TrEMBL record:
SMART domains: DEXDc, HELICc. PROSITE patterns: HELICASE_ATP_BIND_1, HELICASE_CTER. Residues 150-287 form the Helicase ATP-binding domain. Residues 404-562 form the Helicase C-terminal domain. It comes from Microbulbifer taiwanensis. Keywords: ATP-binding, Helicase, Hydrolase, Nucleotide-binding. SUPFAM superfamilies: P-loop containing nucleoside triphosphate hydrolases. This is DEAD/DEAH box helicase. It comes from the Bacteria. One of its GO terms (molecular function) is helicase activity.
Amino acid sequence: MHSESNIDTLIRKLDTASILRQFPECFISDTVVSLDDKEIQSLTGYSSILSLSDTAEDVSLSYEIATRLLEYTEGNCNKVISAADIILSRIGNFPGRSLLRDRYLESNPATISAQLRLECLAREAENTFHLDEKDDKRSTLLTDFQYKFLTSLNEEGSLSVSAPTSAGKSFVLNIDLVRKIKSSTGQCIVYVVPTRALISEVAHRVRTTLRSEGLEDVIVRTAPFPIAKDKIGQAAVYIFTQERLMSFINSQEGEPIITSLIIDEAHEIQNGKRGIILQNAIDISLSRFGDIKVLFASPLIKNPGYFLNLFSRTSNGKYFVEQISPVSQNLILVSEVKGKPKKLDISILTRGEIVPVSTIEAAFKFRGNATSQRANLTLSISNGTESVISFSNNPSQAEKVACRVAELSTEFEPNDEAISFAEFVRREIHPDYPLADCVLKGVAFHYGNMPSLVRSGVENLFKNGSIKIICCTSTLLQGVNLPAKHIVIENPMSGESPMTRADFLNLAGRAGRLLKEFHGNIWCIRPSEWNSECYNGDRLQEINSAISTVMEDGGLAIQKLLSAESSEHTPNDEAEAAFGKIFHDYLIDPQLSFIEGYRSEENSATLDETVNAIKQVEVSLPIQILENNQSLRPDHLQNLFEYLSSQESISELTPLSPYTQGAKARMEEIFLVLATCFEWNLSDPYRGLISYLAYRWVWGIPIGKILADRVEYVQSITPNSSISSTIRGCLSVLEEAVRFRLVKYFSAYIEILKFVAIERGLEEEFETIEPYHIYLEFGSCNRHALNLMALGISRFTALYMESKFDFDQNVEAEEYLKRMSDMNIDAIKMPPLCKKEIIDLLP
């Protein structure tokens, strides 16, 4: 057997040989690395020994060696195939073993001794889960992590799990969801995702799972409208963002119920304002709904037990960390060679060490325009056959890279699905929106502000191979399921800040598709010039809540917010949300025992100053209203309350049905009140734009019409303005100003208006107020369209379908499903993409 130093040298040699095989055809390299039979045998034996270890590092290295040997020998060595089959069984990586058998065993049957075959069978038995206790044939093989995860979900009231992006959490959650629903009736399971971009994906996955298990009576909702307890029947599953969860638990339209709470991408609790909103939503849910089951799922964090401590769930809770991924990643470092523009220096970062691989000659110049460089590299790596995600720091950059790839892509032939999607984009978004031309060249861009049906359409084209390249923004970091063989990254940022190590690991985890590849590749362009070395460091990162981060220095941001000069500065949304939470906690606990959790030797004096500043704030609103609107400043809520209380007639400040005369003027008047009370400092033109877009959005004007009118208006003023930039800007205003900020403000406005009405003895008159916060988020005030969107149908399709129904006022959304089941969907005049959305939804 080789010494330790020799085996390390052999492993590096194998790494280099493996990476050389990852190069695209257009990369010309003189480097040749060969392994002889003796070296292959030594590596095989070492991998086998490591597979018996209990440490994650050894098991991961065992997997790396075995799978790299498989790829190096190209399936032509029976001994390697047999050994890898045993090793993958031993470490419980059954997806990897399935890939091995599909790819190599048909032409080269493995020769495994009876003893080792029994070992494999024993491991299979240990990891087999029976989907149906009455049917032994309905079973599935789970990885070690998946089996532990599923067992823990069944046994624990509270569970926090940290695992790699590709560990197969979603598959286990599907199994557990079915198991929960079958165990008892009347359950209400809430599944929380960090962004709206994820809602439709998770809803589709949940519906598909339930349908496959014959659970078609389970209600699945994506809108925060509580279902009456007597109408739930078998179960209800809600898929929400944290904001929609807040709307749900504070709903005035029904009595919300939660029996289980799933927090996916729970590490988002550390990210700014929305992290604080997430924490508030979880806090309120756990306090209002008693002993509910709760799961926190996060990628690669060091301290998953933090969530159980934060929410006081340690007494009936368990946590664990999984570091082993069933798919691994190659971190490939790409740098330029001085004086040789077509040369690229390639290294890999493996086990904390940078290993040179080769200097290659590319078919393009790695100089000049950064967009062209990245586009050329992305196109070369894909080579028309392999899936590539090019990460961009913002939507504009994503579009530019995609458009440049499209210009360079001369041989791509689009299929019927890509052609149909391009036609949809031109007709329903804008004729000059560049996504259509990009898709016809095999590439697309993808960012969070895009309309949901367009975004999911891009995802589907990528997943089914109709396009090979996506230029994507940070939506990947929030859990959008878009794995690819390759990811290309250059100097990644999170907003205005350099990307953190945790975010980089989450992004890199998308490289490598389970059951399709043993390894994924992350191509890091010029890493030595990045603003942070996020590509290097520990795999596990410690998490801390956003509110704790704000309070780390004693709350200076809150003090600044409350100072007399604060109105001169740009609003700090994170500080506002932190102030709202701390003030609410202070009202519940006037003795301030909670504040000690933020105290340290360094911040003690500053913390006392922050507490004194908060104590000076006078608010007379009920604590319930403050709790329901914790992401807003309490003093701003008080401003609104005092303004409404001072009005002689609040009837004149009540939102009108959008279709009635005077509704637009009333909405604009309320908008002005909100902007004043919440100190939303807007220029008159920008406020006019928000108001104009908001009203048309609420009225249900198609997005294509809204965008076309905006483009026409901007070009009438600035003829040479970029159509694409105008569209991105309009979508940004809709998402951030209308669907996020105005939704929060109108929700608070309606609640405080009702409270003032009650104080004046007018509760009956004001019992129902037009729910503009709902209209603004979903983009319609039509009851039929809202019910359709509650089912998870996109706004596009809901607007096409709203005229097809004549239901009474109080019909549940599921009645729309039944009615659509009897319709001839193909005969309805609407885009094929909308028809497909409905057909996929129907039982």
